[in-house]
Amino acid sequence: MQRVTAFAGAVLSAACALLAAQAAIGASPVVPDAPIAGGTTGFLSECAPLADTAKARCYVRGLSVEVERAGDPARNLPEIDRKVHEAGGFLEAACHSLMHEVGRTYAKRHDLTIETLYTYVPRSNDPGCSAGFGMGLSMYLGPELIVEPRSLLRTCSRLPTRFREYTCVHGSGHAFMRGFHSQLRDAVNACNELGPSNAPDCSQGAFHDYWISLGGGDGTSAPENADDSPESVCRAYTYKRPCWYRYFWERKSATRVYRAADLLEQCDGQEGMQRAGCVSGASLLVSRERDPVDHARVCNGVQGVDTYNCLRGVNVPALDGKTFEQLRLIRTCADLPSATRAWCYSWIGRTLAVLTDGEFRTSGCAQLETEDARVSCTAGGARMGRPLRTFS
Predict the structure, then answer these.
(1) Smallest Cα–Cα separation from 317: which of 161, 173, 176?
(2) What is the reported pLDDT for 222?
(3) d(Cα 278, Cα 315) in Å, to the nearest integer?
């Protein structure tokens, strides 16, 4: 019991750190020419004792220095990932968001273009610092990308793993929002130009940026007369799951969703795809306080299609490199009724295949206990190239 309580406290602290960092990120930082003075033990430990706003700014400056010093972010961001995971705490929880700003600043300093983007994208599947830096690079290119939206696909399609390709496409939605000055309709129309295989995941990035902009975070500003209602905003678009997905995380951050009943309470009265999107988005809040395996068990407490939509909020990328935990996650599907068990295996198998660039489809699915489980998992893995709509 003590281990469970300690874990929940650690996850909650990390989630609070992430929200504090998101609130603290504003204008582009001034990148110093020398390392920040301070502590001598631990990665950027001089930032740790500061209050949250000052801490976030200190980490942005320090990370910018580290990236500049490394000289080759594509090759050296994975080493920064490693140092940040060792440091843990606020920095690990917030690194993705902090790196948005670091990436934008780096791109400006180095005159990034669409043609040179591939040179700088981190060679890593890490969903934290590396993914955030890559998205920051794409955000900087927003004004250039809106002239020729499909030009980013030349970079995304060259990336060697499915996860990095997904991150690139998702980041293009953020970039279009920056290029169109937070005008959501224009950004989603630009996403549609990427074709049906990319538009839903691109749009998820655009919707995410829209919800961020309503709070003025991450260098955004709210559009005039902005609509803050997911019911009306998402009703106007085909991509309802992607639209809802980050709404609670960005706009209802104080809401505690810990149990199945908490989840259902947030979506009472919603129907159809609006309910599907709402449940997926509210489920994402569960990941603040529960690890992916425990989160999946919460989803087992709802019924029917709500279970599927709840599972879409599980933070699968958090299990990168954790083979044993990946198997623990997909084995929770065995606890579901037969009506929902097959698509649990399929969805988790699919997302783990994305995370492992297809490896889980062969090495992981084969270790499941029943033939039906193995078949559903493998079939899901075979669909890893399709749009995800809710992921990361």
Answers:
(1) 161
(2) 87
(3) 16
